[in-house]
Amino acid sequence: MAALCESFTLCGLGPSGGVGLGGGLLALEPGPDPDHVLLTDRGRTATLFKVSDQKPLGCWSVKHGQIITCPVVCNFETHEYIAVHDDKVLRIWKNKDINLDKVFKATLSADVYRIHSLPNGGPVVLFKGGGVRTLDVLLEAPQQEIENIISDEVIKWSEAFMEGQQPVLIFATEKDGDFFVYVQKLKMNSLHKYKLEQQELSKPLSFTAYIKNQIITLLCLYSNDSVYKVLIPLQQNSEEEEQILSKSLLLKLSVSGSVLKGTSFVVLDRDHIAVLGSLAASGEDSKECLTIWNTKFQTLQTSKELPLGTSGQLWCYEEKFFFTHGKVLTVIMYKCETSSLAAAVGKLKDSQTPDVSSFVNWNTLGDEELVVSLQSQQSVALKSESKMTLRSKRNTVAEVQPDTLSVGQLLLNLKDASTTVFEDELRQLISKAQMPDFQATIGCVITALINRCKTNPKYYPRNFLLHIVQTRDLSYSLCPDLMAVALEKKDVHLLQICLQRFPDIPEEITYACLKVFLSISESYLQRIDVNLESVICYIDIEFNNKEVKTEIVENGFNAELEQDIWDTKITKETHVTADGEFCPVGPQKAALLNAVLHSAYSETFLLPHLKNLPAQQAVLFLRYLYYLYVKCSEKINTTLPGIRSPTISQIMDWMCLLLDAHFTVMVMLPEAKELLSNLHKFVRAQVRFYSELNKIEGSLRELQRLNHQKDSQKYSIEVLELI
Questions:
Q1: Residues of the chain with CATH 2.130.10.10
Q2: Has this prediction a pTM greater than 0.85?
Q3: What is the pLDDT of residues 475-495, one digit of tens each?
Q4: Which of 71, 449, 649, 673 qualifies as a FRET site for 383, CA 20 to 30 Å off?
């Protein structure tokens, strides 16, 4: 089974992208670290990016008038970068180098087509005339003569592999409509030429290859919307100059009457390939999309529409797809699992995807349950395939439960029932705790409630939904539309409970909850029910809505510094204590924000959303995090009292995230200047305090050792001088 997962933007490609990619992207290559990629634009610039942080780590440009003519690569053995500009000029530099004019330069005797860098074999240079040299050999004599092997042929594609300790290079050429394949084994200085079997009325558009057990598998994407496979054995006894390579059809890129016009593709594993192209159905406009296909069972596994268009290029590293989408470079994570018939038709259980197959017992549910469960989660194609598969199960279901309506049939019968009858029947349904597929049934019930909310905007069973969420072990993937409706209705109590109980909430929804919580007024929150158990122990509320100061234990900062820290302006929403300490939000909003702090997230996928938080809300949230940070620091164990109170680690992580997302804005905002200054002073004071503790650590250990050595039986007074 294959699935597309979270996506995010790595960088912009236009002039506003800030990384010099205004001329478009020439290529993307792996960097010195698995989390790094090297981007080469169609001009003068190469940029090293850290993918998880979406941050450039280095950017290098050749002079005006010069053009980088092949992708920049990393030498994995020396951690140096290699570029060729103006076809013949070789440049080699390291991370610390800034000006490429001052780095190593060598002018070669022939035009370079591409450099391939192998993790254990070093860089290999392929020239436009077909000659091949390792970088080490080339640097010994940069002006050495390079043989011209392919005469009038033009190289269309190349790739390099390691077979044991042997570097192997393969490249494809074209001449007058004929395509040729060359395989070069560098250490043996062995070169074999093959001619690709012609295909009527079509030609190769893209190539990819992999090597296993001394056999190169070459895959070719043809203009007739098909992928063909060619096998090339490395062990060749024949010395014929040219052999004909026969090919076999691997995959036809069509599904349900729609045809995919592929532009590029990559191999994911032995049974899956990803194809980027335009999906066109008869009578409809074509739509660019990224697709994953199962070649073993000839099925389309998943697809993602790309409405902003692409350049037609697709790269794949470390289980991530990279491609241009509009004016940005987009990254989509994916996963591939063992290929099986169950996975190919969508029946393999998978706890990580919001698919009904992850919790439904496919042997007991009938067609109607599937329809209800899938109506907002499955595509039309997958739904029709699954219905065909399940149709054969209907007789079995009828035999097992002859007197009982299926869940799907019951929900269909209740579609037009009155609200009272509808909710009563659903309550009876979920009360059958021992029934098979209980979790799936709960998911279907919530789906039915949400669907009624969508068709009737005035209907919203808040208490019923709240009861289900509080009493059942649910997850976001089981009812993905629930939180969306709660956000639309601004049902903050339900959102709070979902954040506390759902383990798999997407970062986009977490951000949406945070934005809603920060935007709602304190006066509105005071009128609604919110669970305050996470704040009641450190924000005590009296009838005058003032915070009562809890017990303070000094933890390394003096009174003068405290006075300096808390000498700040107090807004209208501030809850003030007698000695000047304040919470910038009310208890209800604090409890909601605590629920966000407790939710699981990935920094990579949350940070792009957090950057969209309005500046005023970002400042308010940072004030609250700062307040919690100080509260934690007041306690010797740096732990806030109460149930589900945020930990010091959660507070610090969110503060860092927020500052990463909004630091430039924070520096520019006058109202944030004092907050940042206070935060800096507080952190500095704590660093000094722990530094002082480190200084006396040796003395304290010596005291501990002395106490262990003697056992005083009588009362005594000792004076120990710490020097």
A1: 23-149
A2: no
A3: 888 888 889 999 998 999 999
A4: 449
